[in-house]
Specification:
By secondary structure, the chain is α+β, with helices and mostly antiparallel strands. It has one domain. Helices cover 31% and strands 35% of the residues. The protein has 3 helices and 5 strands. It has a 3-stranded mixed beta sheet, with helices on one face. Strands 1-3 form a two-stranded antiparallel ribbon. Helix 2 packs across helix 3.
Length: 91
């Protein structure tokens, strides 16, 4: 709840997706070249959003081998996709 209370306290600004993902990354995370040099205007809490997505994938996703972040420009803006790839589970 404390994290949500902090939303909007700090002024939004421009940040590079690659840098934001790198700050929140775990060893399994790979930021695709499709996000190179893409900036978004966002609340500084965006790093926490990526951190939570990565942590949840690792904690609840079973045998997560890789997490990829991709960016795609669309006529309406930008789509950021976070995808985890799981390793084989013999169960």
């Amino acid at each position: 709840m404390k994290t949500c209370q902090d939303l909007g306290i700090t002024m939004p600004g421009w940040s590079l997706i690659r840098e934001t993902v790198t700050k929140a990354a775990r060893p399994q995370v790979e930021c695709s070249g499709t996000c190179r040099d893409i900036e978004v205007f966002s609340d500084p809490m965006l790093e926490k959003v990526f951190f939570n997505l990565f942590e949840n994938a690792i904690q609840y996703g079973g045998r997560v081998m890789e997490i990829t972040v991709r960016c795609e420009r669309t006529p309406d803006g930008l789509v950021i996709t976070v995808e985890d790839k799981r390793g084989w589970d013999p169960k």
